[in-house]
Amino acid sequence: MKIALDIFTIFSVMAGAFFFLAGTVGLLRFPDPLTRLHALTKADNLGLGLVVLGLLPQTHWPLDTIKLIAIWLFALLAGATVGQLMACTARRGGGQPK
Amino acid sequence: MTMPDFLLSAAAFVLVMVALGLIRILRGPEDVDRMMAAQLFGSGGIAALLLFGVATEAKAVIDVALTLALLAAFASVAFVQGISRPDSDDTQETRDE
Amino acid sequence: MTLALAVDIGLALLILAMAAWTIAVRDTFASVIGFVTYGLLLTLVWVRLALPDVALTEAAMGGGLTGALLIGAAARLRRTEATVRERPGVFTRTLAAVLSATVTAALSFCVLNLPDPAPTLAPGAAAKLGSTGVGNPVTAVLLAYRSMDTLLEAIVVLIALFGVWSLAHDRFWGGCPQLRTHADSEGILAYFARILPPIGIIVGVYIFWIGADFPGGKFQGATILAAMWLLVIGAGLAHFPPVSQAWLRILLVAGPLVFMAIGFAGIVTAGAVFAYPDGFAKPLILAIEIALMPTLVLALALLVAGAPQRMPPQ
Amino acid sequence: MNGPTLFGLCAAALIGFGLYGLIVNPQPLRKIIGFNIIGSGVFLLFGTIARRGAAAGMGGDPVPQALLITGIVVAFSATALAVALLLRLFDEGGVVTLVSEASPTEAKADPPDA
């Protein structure tokens, strides 16, 4: 059982790390703010989410587990809000054009 | 490779990734892009802190990550509010595309 | 061990690069964004240095209040800052660079020659920890061993707030501070500001409460609560009260006053100023912390809000 | 070389950077940021000393840690006051710069380079 949980942790954390990789590549390579925003929110939601999911079996029930889940929920909420607000700003011209 | 070693390596990897994303802060070209890089760095930092905290059994680190996650949107919200001027062209936002 | 050192070196290089960019970049707004990221990096450094209490303070301050304060100011000053393009000439810059490099070199010399073994007060702090009734040595230092510092700090925060208020125009004296908001009450921001604060208040109170025995405490908790209040106001769901309100002023001074009263009562009950009578240390520390909490929340949030800018509607 | 020494040297460099920014940047808001970077460098130096004082089962000397927490809050208060002063200056004159038209001779004697 312990082995199975450890393997789950390893896979999930690696998947999460992959999404951070993808988010960074997207942020650097995509051509305009809106596509970059899409890359950013992927990393926010899935990257952090998978890392949290992977860490859950390694933490102490209940307080740490609840905190970890809360962190992911905060990140989801923040990601959704920031995504919308940033998209509006980007459409309006991204602030100060240089 | 033990579990703590793996988690620490993963933390280092995530940190390197989002740190590379900071190149977007240097390049811009617009402030929105810079703020996005800062936001990505924020979530990457939270993930790295969690991995680090679980790996070393440092419980307080999880509280630090909790605080950061709670305030994750704060700077971006202030940024969006600051950047859009209430006295100028906010009303035509949706039409001029 | 080598992995840890590699992470430390990477972190140090990253924070130096961020600081250099924040200073060198031409656009002020970009500089402020750089500074917010810099604060986050600093939080990671505190964690790497195994100072979680400081990391929590930095996370709450740097992530919440400082960013909001500087970004708000940069937004208001935007037009003028853009016009200032001139920089000091080569001579001034060279002189500044030489001066800075000298300071850095001198400090580096000091760092490399710090006494070894390092002097520490940790054993002394640990020895008396039992008599204070708290488990977190940092909280014990803040509220038992060196409580005078903490009292003066709370007073400094208040004085800064009075300084900010005194910068209001005469016609707005006693009025309401204002944040830059233009949010509609149906927008995503208003939704966010309705969902997050209830949970955020729980987290803030939790961080405050565990401060007795684990990393955390009133400054960190108060910063989180202040950030939540600012979020609600920033979304247009509430307004700052006029600074002339009696309840506001009473809460602002209540913390330091309770602190001082307990401190001076120590002369009678325990034979010294800021001494706690045997067996009462924990409840008295708790009383001080609870009294300081509203003071800090209000003062920190109002510091971000700035000087009063309008009169309350009659 | 160990962690605390590394971050101590990092702190020394940060103080130098901040000082340079404080002197060179003409915009007052940038000076405030430069000052904050100096402040964080000083805090980091203090943190190095706290970390080196690890003993008695604690990760660091608690006294400098407590002073650091105090310092961070006070630094924020001072920054808020500085920003408020700056905004009031802006409201009064509409301009915020510490160089420009006040000292045109200096600009001439010391021309901005390309």
Q: Can you walk through the features of this model?
A:
The complex is a heterotetramer of chains A (98), B (97), C (314) and D (114). Chain A is mainly α. Chain A has one domain (2-91). Chain A is 82% helix and 0% strand. Chain A has 3 helices and no strands. The radius of gyration of chain A is 16 Å and the shape is elongated. By secondary structure, chain B is mainly α. Chain B has one domain. Chain B contains 5 helices and no strands. In chain B, α3 (31-56) runs antiparallel to α4. With 314 residues, chain C is mostly helical. The longest helix of chain C has 25 residues, at 52-76. Chain D has one domain (3-109): Orthogonal Bundle (Helix Hairpins), CATH 1.10.287. Chain D has 4 helices and no strands. Mean pLDDT of chain D is 80; it is low at 100-114. Chain D has helices spanning 3-24, 28-52, 62-93, 104-109.
* Rg of chain D, Å, rounded: 19 Å
The best one-word shape of chain D is elongated
- N-C termini distance of chain A: 57 Å
Strand content of chain D: under 5%
Helices and strands of chain A: which structural class?
A: mainly alpha
What is the overall silhouette of chain A? Answer: elongated
CATH topology value of chain D? Helix Hairpins
**Quick one: CATH class of chain D?**
Mainly Alpha
**Number of domains as seen in the coordinates of chain D:** 1
Tell me which CATH architecture of chain D applies here.
Orthogonal Bundle
Q: Helix count of chain D?
A: 4
Distance between the termini of chain D: 41 Å
What fraction of residues of chain A sit in β-strands?
under 5%
List the helices and strands and how they pair.
The complex is a heterotetramer of chains A (98), B (97), C (314) and D (114).
Chain B: H1 3-21, H2 23-27, H3 31-56, H4 59-70, H5 74-83
Chain C: H1 2-24, H2 28-48, H3 52-76, H4 78-83, H5 90-112, H6 122-127, H7 129-132, H8 137-145, H9 147-165, H10 188-210, H11 218-234, H12 246-269, H13 281-305
Helix pairs in contact in C: 1-2, 2-3, 3-11, 3-13, 8-9, 9-12, 9-13, 10-11, 11-13, 12-13
Chain D: H1 3-24, H2 28-52, H3 62-93, H4 104-109
Helix pairs in contact in D: 1-2, 2-3
Summary, kept brief:
The complex is a heterotetramer of chains A (98), B (97), C (314) and D (114). Chain C has 314 residues and is an all-alpha fold.
